Amino acid sequence: MTTFPKYIPQSDPPRPPWETLPTMYDLPSDNPEEPGLPDDFHFLQPLLLYLTFQPINWNPELVYSAADLNLYYDLQHPLWYKRPDWFGVVGVKKLYKGEDLRLSYVTWQEPANPFVIVELLSPGTEAEDLGTSEKAEDKPPSKWEVYEKILRIPYYIVFSRYTNELQAFGLVGGHYEPINLTNGRILMPELSLSLGVWQGAFRDIERLWLRWFTLEGELIPEPTEEVSAANERAIIAEQEARNAKQEAEQARRKAEQLAERLRQLGVNPDELI
Q1: What's the domain range around 244?
Q2: How far apart are alpha carbons 159 and 168 in whole angstroms?
Q3: Of 48, 27, 28, whose CA–CA distance to 38 is shortest?
Q4: What does residue 253 show for φ and ψ, rounded to 5 degrees?
Q5: Distance between CA 241 and CA 209 in Å, rounded?
Q6: Is residue 113's pLDDT more than 90?
C-alpha cells in the first residue's frame, strides 16, 4: 500500500509592517494635548530663519532670535505663555542680561518685545494661528490675540508648507491688517530686510523655504553658503591671477621676438626707447 505525505495547508506569508501598521501620516507629531509639536520641517525652517536673520541697520550684538522657546506675556498671569515657531527681536542682547542663555523669553524682564513672529501652520494649530478659533471661557487668549492686542508685534507671518502660502499681517491702529507682498516678499524697512519664499536646497533638502532677503531682494546667505561663495571667489581670483601671469609671459616672449627681429634688420632695439 502506497503512503502519501500528509498535506499541511500553508498560511500566507506575513505582510511587511509598512503595509499593516500606521504610517507617519497616521501618527503625526502633533500631540492632542499640545498641538504643533515639532516635526522635521519645524526644525529646519526655523533654523534657516535663525541663521539668516541679520538686520542690516542693527548692531549684531543687539539682535536676538529663537525657535520653539516659551514666550511669557502677561504679568497678571505669569504662567501663561505662547511658543512661536520662530521670533526675532532687535534691541536685545543675545544673552540674558549679557550673561546667560535664555531658558524662556519673559517679556516683562526684557527691554523689547519680539519685532516679528513666524508661525508654521499645522493641522492642529491653523485656527488659532489665523485667529479664527473661538475664544474659550477661562482659557488663555489665542496666539493671534496675544500677538496683536497684548504684545503688539509689528509683523506676524504665517506660512504653510502644505500649500506654500505665505500670509503676512502688520499692526495698523492697534489691529492686524494683511500686508501685500512686493515681488513676492514682505518688506520690513525698519530692519532693512524682507521675507519671502525661496526655492533651493537647505541642509541638502530641496524645496520651497521661507527665508530672509535684503530690501532689494538679495539673499542673506547662511554660513555654509558664505563659505561656498568665499571658496568660489578664491578659485576665480586664482584663475584670474594665473591668466594674468600667462598673458604677461606671452607679452614678454613677443617683445623678445620683436627685438630679435629688429637686430636681424640691423636695428638696435635699445636705441628705440
Answers
A1: 229-272
A2: 9
A3: 28
A4: -65, -40
A5: 38
A6: yes
